[in-house]
Amino acid sequence: MTESTENTIRVVIADDHAFTRYGLRVLLESDPGITVVAEACDGREAVTRVLEFQPDVVVMDVRMPNGGGLQATKEIRRSRPGTRVLVHSEYEADPNVMAAMRAGASGFLMKAGDVTQIIRAVRDVAAGAWIFHLSDTARMRPWFDELRTARRDGAFPQLTAREREILNLLAAPRQTTAGAAARLGISTKRVENALTDIKTKLGAVDRAELIAMARAAGLGTGL
After folding, report:
1. pLDDT tens, 9-30?
2. Which CATH number fits domain 9-154: 3.40.630.30, 3.40.50.2300, 3.30.1300.10, 3.40.50.300?
3. How far apart (Å, rounded) are the C-alpha atoms in residues 143 and 52?
4. pLDDT digits (tens, 9 = 90+) for 40-75
5. Cβ-contact 170, 196 below 8 angstroms
6. Secondary structure class of 24 (helix, strand, coil)
7. What is the pTM of this model?
8. What's the CATH fold of domain 161-216?
9. Chain centroid, CA 221 distance in Å
10. DSSP 90
11. Cα 85 to chain center, whole Å?
12. Where are the domains of the chain?
């Protein structure tokens, strides 16, 4: 394991095949900006390792014992929403992949694809991007549209309806706290207090990070 620095992307690898985990570790740690902090061989262990090591990204196989990647993704997104999940599977049409994306995963890579893509994907996902590497994007477009809607509507279940409404408004381009308060018919102070609670619940260090998280989930659009 390489030594971590403040700017290093911390990664947990979750896969039930030891050879795959080893290969991913060697590849990822060939980038000096990435450190693999832990490995997991099943879904339950993946959740445990995330809570223990608090990584930036999990590279997650969806087909594993003990809940698999789908259940692990749900629990990770609920317990530690600041950790991004990058799904890794042999089959792009696997229903578990689609379900994991609906549960909040930030990207999908084919195991049979160009292995060097995973370093770029981990970096992009850690920065808040939403990554797909698919062989037939046109065929999957209806699923993309449905997924975007599902992710936006189901984002951040730990928030109350009012908190989610406030976050949705604040994520809109050029929206101010005063403008959101006026639109909701409440005081600016109430919006500021709600913003503090939202940051605490989502683990955001400041408003900029919170807005980035909201926009990555599809909030702030259509206003």
Report:
1. 999 999 999 999 999 999 999 9
2. 3.40.50.2300
3. 34
4. 999 999 999 999 999 999 999 988 999 889 899 989
5. no
6. helix
7. 0.64
8. Arc Repressor Mutant, subunit A (1.10.10)
9. 19
10. S
11. 5
12. 9-154, 161-216
